[in-house]
């Protein structure tokens, strides 16, 4: 069961990012707000779509895999299928890429810009079955808030 008030977290994202036009600064603060606002997570970060692979962007947690091909692992699969993936136990996900052996469950949400996937938000937990439907909907709301605040000139990172 989640204790996170996702409406409040979304409002905090809006309040923190609304007046800043630097895409990198906003991405870093977005990830920091999520990482610190969620219980029992050991990694949160953005992967940016560059051609046919995802490239590591701002994150909180242990060093991570830098490049993930589309269709590989949870992140690459979520980006390719353009859908959120909530994985109860990453060890049961075919082709899981273990960047941090402590991670047991994962939530990956595509980030859309102009109707296309521009990257993904990846959140890991050391607990099996950490994320439920409420978490998924809440994190998706936070991602929508973040992406809606991107300055048209600055764009995505």
Please describe what this structure looks like.
- The chain has one domain: GAF domain (Beta-Lactamase, 2-Layer Sandwich), CATH 3.30.450.40.
- The chain is 33% helix and 27% strand.
- Strands 3-2-1-6-5-4 form a six-stranded antiparallel β-sheet, with helices on both faces.
- Strand 2 and strand 3 form a beta hairpin.
- Helix 1 packs antiparallel against helix 2 and helix 1 packs parallel to helix 4.
- The model has no long low-confidence stretch (mean pLDDT 94).
CATH class: Alpha Beta
SS content category: alpha+beta
User: Which CATH architecture would you pick?
Assistant: 2-Layer Sandwich
What share of residues is helical? 25-40%
Q: How do the strands line up in the largest sheet?
A: 3-2-1-6-5-4
| Count of alpha/pi helices | 4
CATH homologous superfamily assignment: GAF domain
How many DSSP E strands? 6
Question: Which regions contain 5 or more consecutive residues with pLDDT less than 50?
Answer: none
Number of structural domains: 1
Give the helices and strands as they follow along the chain: HHEEEHEEEH
What is the rounded distance between the termini?
33 Å
Largest sheet: 6 strands, antiparallel
Shape: globular
Radius of gyration: 14 Å
Average pLDDT value?
Answer: 94
Per-chain topology:
Elements: H1 6-17, H2 23-37, E1 43-50, E2 53-61, E3 67-69, H3 73-81, E4 85-87, E5 105-113, E6 116-125, H4 133-148
Antiparallel strand pairs: 1-2, 1-6, 2-3, 4-5, 5-6
Helix pairs in contact: 1-2, 1-4
